[in-house]
């Protein structure tokens, strides 16, 4: 029986990463810009007199619903980006009210109210780069309007095949080299003695916990978690859920409890997007719990092998038996922490993504468009998500109905 569980343990799907920066051959040559004059009701911005600055406009007034981004070059200079000649602003009037003078315009999927043509720039320079930025799942934010095909030049998202890939976390080796996420990763599976970490592991007494703050999701993950909780309890295993009407506790205490009490941490994604793996998994790793993941990503591209359990590879009943086996066999459970001797897992910041964007704008000289952008972003049927959807033209409606169009 132990052999069967051990085999199932190492049959669980595990993970990979991507290259953070592209290598480019030519540098983008920018036209000179003159100092702009603001409207009387706008404050005159502080601006550095640098002829080769590349100006980036955030199309919506706010970068992110919860993030304010300071205008200027400082974000590139302070973070020691490879290029610091980028200037970012959300002020559409910065270039004498001439939107065409910006070198790049970034459209953030989480702050765009709608994608109708009336909500996008009226004029466009052939040299401008239109950049689609999305860190929220495509399943939560599908793009419906047909004019979004052939609209963007660059994609900057969590997807690994983006022009500027920006995962929410990355795995590095002990020298700081990025190992994952990548489309192909060869993980070091050497098993190490983890004596240094045993103090965090031997005092654990409960099976699993989940700290949740997003209660209503398209994939009904909370409903599934409650069902799984009842199965755990039937087998005399604790599965505690904090938030969404369950137990409540201050965040710092909750995380301390993970480290102290729980063997496993539940990590169900709030959406089913390809390559969509959020930084919630870090809550498990930082608190010496093994993540039990549930999502639509190929986790072998993201997470160290033998460091997590993927629910999709087994049934609920088999998962319960596996959890019981690991709790009762500490040396096998501790093997899930062996990766700590080889890798470091940390969050990828917005600033890192901005550095990558500035590199791309400096080194990419081509002008191309994403002709089938809607299908690249959202792989499922647009008809199911976009009708009625307030389409502006018959052609737009037809593009949802006719499955061959996307």
From TrEMBL:
It is an enzyme of class 2 (transferase). Pathway: Protein modification; protein glycosylation. Its main location: Golgi. It is found in: Golgi apparatus, Golgi stack membrane. It comes from the Eukaryota. Keywords: Glycoprotein, Glycosyltransferase, Golgi apparatus, Membrane, Signal-anchor, Transferase, Transmembrane, Transmembrane helix. Its EC number is 2.4.1.-. GO terms for molecular function: fucosyltransferase activity. Residues 202-365 form the Fucosyltransferase C-terminal domain. GO terms for cellular component: Golgi cisterna membrane. It is a single-pass type II membrane protein. Residues 54-167 form the Fucosyltransferase N-terminal domain. SUPFAM superfamilies: UDP-Glycosyltransferase/glycogen phosphorylase. Belongs to the glycosyltransferase 10 family. PANTHER family: ALPHA-(1,3)-FUCOSYLTRANSFERASE C-RELATED (PTHR48438:SF1). This is Fucosyltransferase. It comes from Pieris brassicae (White butterfly).
């Amino acid at each position: 029986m132990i052999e069967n569980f051990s085999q199932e343990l190492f049959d669980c799907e595990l993970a990979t990463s991507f290259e953070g920066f592209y290598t480019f051959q030519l540098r983008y040559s920018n036209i000179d810009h003159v100092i702009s004059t603001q409207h009387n009701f706008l404050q005159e911005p502080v601006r550095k007199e640098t002829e080769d600055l590349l100006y980036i406009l955030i199309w919506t007034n706010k970068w992110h619903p919860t993030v304010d981004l300071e205008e200027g070059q400082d974000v590139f200079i302070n973070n020691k980006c490879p290029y610091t000649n980028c200037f970012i602003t959300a002020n559409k009037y910065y270039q004498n009210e001439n939107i065409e003078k910006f070198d790049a315009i970034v459209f953030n999927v989480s702050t765009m109210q709608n994608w109708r043509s009336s909500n996008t720039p009226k004029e466009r320079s052939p040299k401008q780069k239109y950049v689609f930025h999305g860190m929220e799942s495509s399943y939560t934010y599908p793009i419906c309007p047909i004019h979004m095909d052939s609209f963007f030049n660059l994609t900057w998202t969590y997807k690994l095949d983006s022009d500027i890939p920006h995962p929410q976390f990355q795995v590095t080796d002990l020298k700081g080299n990025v190992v994952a996420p990548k489309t192909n990763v060869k993980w070091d599976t050497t098993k190490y003695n983890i004596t240094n970490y045993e103090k965090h592991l031997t005092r654990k007494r409960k099976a699993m916990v989940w700290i949740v703050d997003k209660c209503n999701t398209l994939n009904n993950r909370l409903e599934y978690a409650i069902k799984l909780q009842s199965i755990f309890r039937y087998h005399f295993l604790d599965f505690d859920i904090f938030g969404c009407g369950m137990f409540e506790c201050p965040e710092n205490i909750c995380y301390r409890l993970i480290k102290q009490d729980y063997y496993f941490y539940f990590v169900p994604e709030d959406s089913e997007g390809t390559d969509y793996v959020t930084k919630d998994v870090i809550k498990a790793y930082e608190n010496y719990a093994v993540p039990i993941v549930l999502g639509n990503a190929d986790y072998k591209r993201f997470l160290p092998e033998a460091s997590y359990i993927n629910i999709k590879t087994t049934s609920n009943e088999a998962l319960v038996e596996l959890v019981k086996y690991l709790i009762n066999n500490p040396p096998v459970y501790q093997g899930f922490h062996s990766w700590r001797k080889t890798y470091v897992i940390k969050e990828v910041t917005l600033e890192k993504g901005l550095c990558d964007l500035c590199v791309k704008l400096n080194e990419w000289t081509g002008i191309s468009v994403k002709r089938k952008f809607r299908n690249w972003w959202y792989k499922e049927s647009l008809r199911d998500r976009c009708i009625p959807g307030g389409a502006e033209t018959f052609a737009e409606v037809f593009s949802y109905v006719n499955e061959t169009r996307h």
